[in-house]
Design a protein that fits this description.
homodimer; 423 residues; alpha+beta; 9-stranded mixed beta sheet; 36% helix
Chain lengths: 423, 423
C-alpha cells in the first residue's frame, strides 16, 4: 500500500532531507566483507527469487482468505533456513533467525493479502523482464525478498546480535484493517519483544523511507428503505437514489491537497432484482489524511453529506411505505503514527541508502508500520527494489530487470543487518 | 408481477367498464350444478391448499434456479390428478387434464420463480390468517390454486370440451425475461396448440382482468475505468462517481403518470476493495410504459443521461490513466400486447365475475400474458383470490382468511371452466 505520490507530496509537507549524515552503523556496512558476501549471494539467487515471486503471486490471497498462501509461504521460509516457523492465531506466518542474544529483536514483514477478491485471475504473464499479475508487486515481491535475504544471510554465514523475525502477515489491505499487525503487537507471542520493525511494501528503487503512518477511517454506508415493485410501487423513496445522490455529493467534496486528504468509494452493492425497488444499497468508503485534523474534518463532512442525501430522497418521493434511513458504520480505523527523523532506525536506513549512492526520500503512507508507530515502536516502511506500477488494479506489473531488482534487495538487507548488528 | 396501482391507473387511461354485459358462457356457469360441486370441493379442500401454498413458498426459486421448486410442483400436480406431467427443456412444469376433444386447448399458468436471490429466508411466518414470507403471494399462492382447482374438477367429475394445460412456468420475474412463456409459445411441444391463456398472478379479490401487457426494457449499465490505489491514485476518474451521478440524473428523469411510465435502479455492484478506485461499477435498470412511444422516449433519455454522467466524470477528474467508458446493454425486452375488450375471453371473465357479484376492473401490467398477447393469442391475467401486499419485498404477506380466499379460487375456476366448456 506504499504510494509514490504520497511520499513525494509529503516529503515537502512534513520534512525533507535530501542529504543526511551517515549513521555509523549504516555507513559501515558496505565496508564489511561479510556484507559483500550477502550481496553476492542475493545476486546469484536472483533466478530462484523470480521463480518464487511468481509462485507466491499465483496463490490467491484475498482479504481474510490468506491461508493457502500463508501455508505455502511458511514452507518456503523453512526451505530458506528460517527456524521456528509457525502460523499464529491471526494467520501471520512468523519464523526466527536467531542472533547471539546481544541485540534487540528486529522484525521484517511483507503482507500476504492482496486487494483482489476470490476468483481473480492471478496467473503471471511475462514480457521480457516485466511480470504482469494482480498482486505481483503488492506485496508478492516483498514476500520473495524475505526468502532471498534469509538464504543470503545463511550463505554468508552471518551471525547477528539480535534475533530477526521474518513475517508474512495478514490483513494489510482493504477490510483487513491491519489485523495482522494488531495481533502481532498487541496480543501474539512476540508482543513487547519486537524492538524495531521494517515493513517491505511494493517495488521501488529502494530510497524511500516511510516515516509516518497516514491515518485512515473506513466506513460501510447502508441506505435502507421499504422496497417495492418497480412498476406497482413506482414513486416510493428508493435507497438507490439516496445512494446515487450521496456518491455524487461525496465526489464533489473539497479536500486539501496539502496535507494530502483523500476519499474513495470502493465496493458497492445491494438490491434483489431489476424489477424491485431495493430495500438496501450500500458502499464502502475510505477516507485518509496526512493529519488527524483534516481526517476528522473530512469524516464530518462525509457523514453530513450521507444524511443530506437521505433527507433529499425523503423529500423527493413518497414515504407512504416507509422512509429512507442510513447507517454509517466504521469498518476500519488506522491510527496515525510518526517517527522522529532523528530516530536511529531512520538514520541507519538513510545512511545505508547513501552508501549505495542513493538519495533518501521521506514520506508518509498507510502501511503495516502504522501499528508499531502508534505504539511508539521504531518502524519504517521500505521499498523492495525494482520498478512497477498500477498496483490495486488488474493491470499491476513489476520489472525484475536484474541490476535494479538486486540492488533494491541489497539495500533492504543492508538496512536490516545494520539494525540487527553483524557480530 | 400483477400490480394494483397499475391497473387502477390504467383503468381510466385505456378503457374502463364498470359494468359489463354477461357473456353467455360466463353467465351460465353459476347455474350449472356441476360447477356448484366444483365450488364445494374448493371450499372443502382449503386447509390442504394452505398447507401446499406454504410448502411451495418454502422451496427457494430464484431466477434461473427454479428447478427444485419445479420438481416438487410437478409431483404435487401428479398427486392432484393431472396427467402427462413433464418439465420441458426450459424448465416449465406442464401437465394435461384431457377434454373430450370438442373444444380448443386452454392453458392456465402460475410462475415458479421469485425475485429473491439464493439464501433468502423463505420460511413462512403465520399470524392468524396472515402468512408472511418472500414470494408467498407472488406467485406461490397461484401455484397452489392450480392444484386445488385440478382436484376440484376431478372431485366434481367435470368433463371439459377442450384440454386444459396446467403450467408452473419459469422466468416471469427479473432477468427471466419471460423465457418460460417464450419457450412455451415459440418452441415447445405445445407451440401453436394453445388457443387461450390465463395467467394467475398474486392474490387479489378476483375482479381484476389484465387486458394489456405493459412493455418493458431492462438494461445492465456498466461504467468502466482505469482503477487505482485509493490514496496514491486519488484524483483519477472513478466509475463509482460516474455511476453515482448517473443514478442521480436518472432519479430526476421526468416521466408521464399517464400513460404510466416508470424506471427503477434494482441491483447494483462493482469494486474490489475499499481502498481501490473501482475498475467497474454497474447497475440493472428496469424501464416500463403503457405505450411503446413513451417507453422508447424514456429509454432514449435514460441512455443519454448515462453518457452525460460519463462525460462529466471525464471532465471532473484526471484521465491520465484512462477514461471512464459506459456500456448500456439490454438484458430484457418484454413485448407490448393488447386484447380487444370485445374478445370472448375478456367477456367471459367479466361475466363470471359479475355472476359472483363482482365489478370487473380492467388494466394493463407486465405479466406472462405479454407473450401470447404479442402473438395474437387471447390471454388474460387474473388474480388468485385473497388479499395481500408488499410483494417484491422481504415483508410480503397474504391473507388466507377462508371466505375471501375460497371465493377468488372459485371465480378463477369458473372462468377456466366457462372457457374450456363443461360437457
Amino acid at each position: 500500500m506504499f504510494t509514490k505520490i504520497a511520499r513525494n507530496v509529503v516529503c515537502a509537507f512534513i520534512v525533507c532531507l535530501a542529504t543526511f549524515a551517515q549513521g555509523p552503523a549504516g555507513g559501515r556496512i558496505v565496508l564489511n566483507p561479510k556484507f559483500q558476501a550477502v550481496q553476492d549471494a542475493i545476486a546469484r539467487d536472483h533466478d530462484r527469487f523470480v521463480r518464487e515471486l511468481i509462485q507466491i503471486t499465483e496463490i490467491e490471497a484475498p482479504p481474510f482468505k490468506e491461508e493457502k498462501r500463508a501455508q505455502a509461504f511458511a514452507e518456503m521460509l523453512r526451505q530458506s533456513g528460517v527456524t521456528d516457523v509457525e502460523i499464529d492465531a491471526e494467520g501471520n506466518v512468523i519464523g526466527i533467525r536467531k542472533g547471539s542474544g546481544n541485540g534487540p529483536m528486529i522484525a521484517i514483514a511483507a503482507h500476504l493479502d492482496t486487494v483482489f477478491p476470490e476468483g481473480t485471475n492471478v496467473k503471471v504473464r511475462r514480457e521480457g523482464s516485466r511480470l504482469y499479475a494482480p498482486g505481483v508487486g503488492d506485496d508478492s515481491r516483498a514476500l520473495a525478498v524475505l526468502l532471498v535475504v534469509a538464504r543470503a544471510l545463511d550463505a554468508a554465514k552471518i551471525q547477528t546480535a539480535g534475533d530477526i523475525l521474518f513475517i508474512g502477515n495478514v490483513g494489510e489491505e482493504g477490510p483487513g484493517d491491519l489485523r495482522g499487525m494488531k495481533y502481532l503487537f498487541l496480543k501474539g507471542p512476540y508482543k513487547d519483544k519486537i524492538k524495531m520493525f521494517i515493513s517491505l511494501d511494493p517495488y521501488g528503487a529502494g530510497n524511500d523511507i516511510t516515516v509516518g503512518g497516514i491515518g485512515s477511517k473506513r466506513f460501510k454506508v447502508t441506505f435502507k428503505g421499504p422496497g417495492g415493485h418497480s412498476f406497482g410501487s413506482f414513486g416510493l423513496v428508493s435507497p438507490a437514489y439516496a445512494f446515487g445522490n450521496a456518491v455524487t455529493k461525496l465526489s464533489r467534496m473539497q479536500v486539501p491537497s496539502r496535507p494530502k486528504t483523500t476519499f474513495n468509494v470502493g465496493v458497492i452493492g445491494g438490491g434483489t432484482s431489476v424489477n424491485s425497488i431495493p430495500m438496501e444499497s450500500w458502499m464502502e468508503v475510505d477516507i485518509r489524511s496526512e493529519t488527524k485534523e483534516e481526517l476528522n474534518k473530512a469524516v464530518d463532512t462525509f457523514t453530513r453529506l450521507m444524511h443530506e442525501a437521505v433527507d433529499e430522497e425523503n423529500r423527493a418521493r413518497s414515504t407512504s411505505q416507509g422512509r429512507i434511513e442510513v447507517e454509517v458504520k466504521m469498518i476500519g480505523d488506522r491510527p496515525f503514527g510518526q517517527i522522529p527523523m532523528s530516530a536511529p532506525i531512520v538514520q541507519t536506513a538513510a545512511a545505508v541508502m547513501q552508501s549505495f549512492g542513493m538519495t533518501p526520500i521521506y514520506g508518509t503512507s498507510s502501511t503495516d508500520s502504522n501499528i508499531p508507530l502508534s505504539l511508539g515502536i521504531p518502524a519504517v516502511t521500505l521499498e523492495s527494489g525494482g520498478t512497477g506500477g498500477r498496483n490495486h488494479t488488474l493491470d499491476e506489473w513489476i520489472d525484475v530487470e536484474k541490476t535494479a531488482s538486486v540492488r533494491g534487495i541489497q539495500v533492504a538487507a543492508g538496512i536490516l543487518l545494520s539494525l540487527a548488528g553483524i557480530q
